[in-house]
Amino acid sequence: MTAPDECAECERLRTELDAATRAGDESAAVDCRVLLRRHPHHGDRPVQTEEVAE
Prior knowledge:
mainly alpha; 54% helix
């Protein structure tokens, strides 16, 4: 379900990010993180992503 401060695209990208992370596909996970960061701001705040510790 989409949180009040998120849009459907944010939700889709987060779902893809979670799936890529679980599958160990770091390339796809990085792509999702970049797309989330580039996605337009909501309510004058950037969309946050969780950083993965290396």
